[in-house]
Amino acid sequence: MRPPSSSLRSSFETAVALAVAALSWVAAVARTVTARAWNALLALAARFRSAARTGFDRGRRLFAGPIRELVTGPVRDALFGRRLSLSLLVLLLTVPLALGSAWWVGTNVGYGTLVELVSGTWDGTNPALGVFLAAAALVTLGAVSAGVNSGLLPTSVLVTAPVFGAALTRYGTTVETYGGTGVVSLPEAVAYAAFLGVTIGVPLALCGFLLGAGFRHVGLVLTDGAGPSRPADQA
Predict the structure, then answer these.
(1) Which of 24, 134, 195, 235 sits between 20 and 30 A of 186, alpha carbons compared?
(2) 3-state helix, strand, coil in the chain (%, to 5)
(3) Where do the structural domains in the chain lie, given as residue ranges?
């Protein structure tokens, strides 16, 4: 027996109504969840912007205060010198120092003899007084530069220049290679001189810089201590 059509229609309408109600509830829940998630995201973004703004303001005040004074004051003086005009003069002196060192070694000593003197002094087999005197002169040069104007970079270039010039006399000499013997070209000589300038000149310059800075600090302390006493002390 087939059910009456009115009963089927009523069941179908009830199912459709339930489906529509379920879809409406799901849509409402989705809208609520989406709205809450969006509001939470906006609140998080606002907090992040506020924290970033606060951190930026604090960093700007910090860099505008102590750090800026440190970078533009002691750090700049230690690296480039207290007076840039003197630092520029020191850099200009490196050219005649390098050329003079190359001329003196090439004329009076020779590259081969220089290598023997330095090697014998380094390994202790044949120490040469001239090598010790040259190293002491370079350290003294760096100490004078650091004591007068500070500036680690110009002091390093100043001390490195004579080492570079002396090593540059390797140009045109015959040296042993893996394939036998060969004549040193100008690019090879320049690269070799730059390498020795860094490995030898920079440590000597650092020693001279520390000595010069230390002597200058001691001199300032002694000068301040020897100055006129304050009224409270005289009373």
Answers:
(1) 134
(2) 85, 5, 15
(3) 8-64, 81-225
For residues 129 and 196, the answer to whether their CB atoms sit within 8 Å is no
Cβ contact 200:131 at 8 Å: no
Reduced to 3 states (helix: H, G, I; strand: E, B; else coil), residue 177 is strand
Q: 232 falls in which pLDDT band (50, 70, 90)?
A: very low
User: What is the Cα 160 distance to its own chain's centre?
Assistant: 19
d(CA 147, CA 140): 10
Instruction: Render pLDDT for 9-47 as a digit per residue (tens, 0 to 9).
Output: 677 677 777 777 777 888 888 888 888 888 888 888 888
Over range 181-188, report the average pLDDT. Answer: 88
Q: From CA 81, how far away is CA 75, in angstroms rounded?
A: 9
Overall pTM surpassing 0.70 (yes/no): no
Report how far residue 201's alpha carbon sits from residue 205's, in angstroms, rounded to the nearest whole number.
Answer: 6
Helix (H, G, I), strand (E, B) or coil at 180: strand
Sign, Cα dihedral of 188, 190, 193, 198: negative
Residues in the chain: 235
112's CB contacts (< 8 A; 6+ apart) are 173
Residue 161: closest CA among 113, 118, 120, 102:
102
Name, in order, each residue with C-beta under 8 angstroms of 141's C-beta and a sequence gap of 6 or more: 158, 159, 208
Over the stretch 54-113, which tens digit does the pLDDT of each residue have? 777 676 666 555 555 545 557 777 888 888 888 888 889 999 999 999 999 999 999 999
Residue 125 CB contacts under 8 Å (≥ 6 apart), including other chains: 119
